[in-house]
């Protein structure tokens, strides 16, 4: 059985100093890096997701309701969309970008990033971010299946939004799913309802 770690949205805009910061985001980036240093051999594959917005419609708002609409964040090719510098990308094999033209919380809505763009979102000389949807781009589920993955572990930001959505979609797709709570950062002060929903849907919770 092949096992994969999915690192969700550990990006500058979701950490302290970003446009949509989650408290503890930077510490989560560092904690994931420390975890990778000692546990990377437990995974056959390690991937990361990125919010990568071009024109996501009503997902962006100058007067957000903080439920369905949010301040602009993680614009494609921007500094805010880059992975946080405290996240060590050494072991990450593939990057999946989501939300180009709509709201997208789950990593399973993401598509494989072009190989000529470095993982931080910076551009190769003379390059430009993809501003049109690539209908032929490989999605996360197809990528995992093509690599024989059956078991996934999910970490990242934010526990009660993109981490939760990714974990629930993974269950629906037939994977055995674990969320490591200590390697996530949440928006809500109390994440009990989020953890309960995850467990009710078959997600195993671990603290590290």
| Biggest sheet descriptor | 7 strands, mixed
How are the strands ordered across the major sheet? Answer: 4-3-2-1-5-6-7
Terminal CA distance reads 21 Å
Q: Which H/E pattern describes the elements?
A: EHEEEHEHEHE
Shape: globular
Tell me the radius of gyration. 16 Å
Number of strand segments: 7
* Share of β-strand residues: 15-25%
Helical residues, percent: 10-25%
List unreliable stretches of 5+ residues. 121-129
Structural class: alpha/beta
Tally the helices: 4
The overall pLDDT, averaged over residues, is 91
Describe this structure in words.
It is a single chain. The relative contact order is 0.19. It contains four helices and seven strands; from the N terminus they run E-H-E-E-E-H-E-H-E-H-E. The two termini are 21 Å apart. The longest helix is centred in the N-terminal third of the chain and has 15 residues, at 25-39. 22% of the residues lie in helices and 21% in strands. The protein is α/β, with parallel strands linked by helices and 208 residues long. The protein has a seven-stranded mixed sheet with strand order 4-3-2-1-5-6-7.
